[in-house]
Amino acid sequence: MVRLIISGCNGRMGRAVEAICTAEPDVEIVAGFDLLGAGEREFPVFASPADFRGEADVVVDFSSPAALNALLHFARSRRIPLVLCTTGYLPEQLSAIDAAARQIPIFRSANMSFGVNVLLDLVRRAAAVLGERYDVEIVERHHNKKLDAPSGTALMLAEAAADGLSDTPEYVYERQSIRRARQAHEIGISSVRGGGIVGDHEVLFAGRDEVIELRHSALSREVFASGAVKAARFLAGIDAPGLYSMADLVGQFK
Ligand SMILES: NC(=O)C1=CN([C@@H]2O[C@H](COP(=O)(O)OP(=O)(O)OC[C@H]3O[C@@H](n4cnc5c(N)ncnc54)[C@H](OP(=O)(O)O)[C@@H]3O)[C@@H](O)[C@H]2O)C=CC1
Ligand SMILES: O=C(O)C1=N[C@H](C(=O)O)C[C@H](O)C1
């Protein structure tokens, strides 16, 4: 049995993870962390991780970068592995995650769907073949409640394209203040927010006479929640500290 804590349990993703866990006979939700205690829930909810005194095998976090310090402190002091799915971390927070991963197992991915992780590979390969003759533009679309922009996935896609290119690219997030023609070494990243769009990422390779588009659309939050529970099951069985990612999990989706 995997004893799991959901951090951000009252949010959209926290509730999607709860729904997935309920259908998994080998997973038990032992607690939730969130800012406000929740009313009728099947498990106790703590505003601060430090208040949880029980036993757990793994924490799955879909909350906010603001939750990170307390979570890392909790996971390190209790030696509990952490699946970090939250996006929008600052560079210094990413460094703190790297440092903590030298002491405990941490799994981090800005996108827990299998499809996006296939897309990352396709983008890397397309960039390597097409090269600087094709302009790379990334367009991400999300619901109107999303707080961070660009999405963590858009940044991962930009890094994947950059891996395939020979020149170091410059990321351009808005063109309104730049009065100049697009430069070959740029990767443009545009964010759209509206309605209930779950998560949509499009990578354009725009050549002079043709455009290639690679696109992933999430049709429900279940795809992220189910990837996160797979990651939790994987991490709960790992003793060695380290920073793990979807690349370590591909076999679990077959
Ligand atoms: N890796 C992936 O595949 C995916 C990642 N995400 C990311 O997950 C995160 C959550 O997304 P979503 O569920 O839509 O967001 P929600 O706002 O619906 O849920 C976040 C929850 O976390 C709570 N929270 C905020 N700050 C803290 C804190 N300091 N400590 C504890 N809890 C806190 C919020 O409380 P309150 O509402 O009171 O602020 C809320 O209940 C985002 O960063 C999003 O980008 C989302 C989908 C997929
Ligand atoms: O906030 C969301 O909803 C999502 N966030 C992630 C991101 O920032 O990439 C992943 C997914 O697209 C949904």
From TrEMBL:
Localization per Swiss-Prot or TrEMBL: Cytoplasm
Pathway assignment: Amino-acid biosynthesis; L-lysine biosynthesis via DAP pathway; (S)-tetrahydrodipicolinate from L-aspartate: step 4/4
Entry binding sites for (S)-2,3,4,5-tetrahydrodipicolinate: H143, G152, T153
InterPro entries: DapB_C, DapB_N, DapB_N_CS, DHDPR_bac, NAD(P)-bd_dom_sf
Dihydrodipicolinate reductase C-terminal domain ranges (all copies): 115-249
E.C. number: 1.17.1.8
Enzyme class name: oxidoreductase
The organism of origin for this protein: Lawsonibacter hominis
The name this protein goes by in its record: 4-hydroxy-tetrahydrodipicolinate reductase
Residue sites binding NAD(+) per the record: G8, C9, N10, G11, R12, M13, E40, C85, T86, T87, S109, A110, N111, M112
Pfam family, one: DapB_C
Binding site for NADP(+): R41
Active-site residues (renumbered): H142 (proton donor/acceptor), K146 (proton donor)
Primary site of residence: cytoplasm
Assembly and oligomerization: Homotetramer.
Keywords attached to this entry: Amino-acid biosynthesis, Cytoplasm, Diaminopimelate biosynthesis, Lysine biosynthesis, NAD, NADP, Oxidoreductase
Catalytic activity: (S)-2,3,4,5-tetrahydrodipicolinate + NADP(+) + H2O = (2S,4S)-4-hydroxy-2,3,4,5-tetrahydrodipicolinate + NADPH + H(+); (S)-2,3,4,5-tetrahydrodipicolinate + NAD(+) + H2O = (2S,4S)-4-hydroxy-2,3,4,5-tetrahydrodipicolinate + NADH + H(+)
Biological role: Catalyzes the conversion of 4-hydroxy-tetrahydrodipicolinate (HTPA) to tetrahydrodipicolinate.
